[in-house]
Structures are given as C-alpha cells and as structure tokens.
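Hey, sorry to bother you again with one of my protein questions. There's a protein on my desk that I can't quite get my head around. No rush at all, and the record is pasted right below.
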Amino acid sequence: MNLIINILILMISLLICV
C-alpha cells in the first residue's frame, strides 16, 4: 500500500514539474 502511494506522489510531482 505504501509503495503505491509513493508512486502516486512521484507521478504527481513529475506532472507538476513538467
């Protein structure tokens, strides 16, 4: 579960960066 949340946060931060 934690891993999935981490991946979601990573994807969101990437979207914000781009």
